[in-house]
Amino acid sequence: MGRLFSILTIFRDFLFKFSELVETNWENQSLDL
Prior knowledge:
- This protein is an all-alpha fold.
- It has 1 helix and no strands.
- The mean pLDDT is 86.
């Protein structure tokens, strides 16, 4: 159970960093999606 929780924590941290990266990219270059 603890292992699964640690994996979820790492995954959430990765998602948070990824969304931050996307946000900074959007500010630098206004992309039309």
